[in-house]
Amino acid sequence: MVKMKNKICLLLSLAAIGSLQAQEIPSVVKNQFMVNVLVPGFVYEHGFDTKNTLYSEVSVGVGYRSNDFSGERWDFYPVINEQFRHYYNLEKRAKKGKVTSHNSGGYYALTGSYVFQSIATKNDYYSKTIPSLTVGPVWGFERTYSRKFNLGLNLGLGVNIDKYDTEVVPILNFSLGWVLGK
User: Fold this and answer.
1) SS3 of residue 164 by DSSP
2) What is the phi/psi pair of residue 70, to 5°?
3) How far apart are CA 62 and CA 39, in angstroms?
4) pLDDT in tens, the chain (182 residues)
């Protein structure tokens, strides 16, 4: 009788261990490519472990200015944005049955954006953007819906540095696009 109880306990223990191993712990994607259509650009996000990624984006910013003295001016400038992200709520979302695929979750990040000088042109309606660097902490979220439609938002407070000034500025980034690949 004792041997039978030991065998049953052993089988139940093995079944419990097997079910624990079968539960998949939500994790960020190891390599993810995206296209941002709102601010035209390309994104690559590399997962280091289950919760941390390096988000890298190259895009083209667009600016518009209008005043009585110089009239209307358009501005096009390259931008590089790097973020070290920590996704903090993937397990909670998974337990609630919410999507966590393609890094759908909330995150904290340290962000750094470099805005280059305007793309050169001979048209008088284009003005020059002054190169600048903005760094600071942000909170954000990323969601990927059906057909890999992607929506992202992050906001925070940072420091902007250019050749004329250093100032505290709000950080606000909104992205709209698609995840490429699997």
Assistant:
1) coil
2) -105, -5
3) 8
4) 556 556 565 555 555 554 444 456 889 999 999 999 988 999 999 999 999 999 999 999 887 767 666 667 777 889 999 999 999 999 999 999 998 999 999 999 999 999 998 885 555 555 677 899 999 999 999 999 989 999 999 999 999 999 999 999 999 999 999 999 87
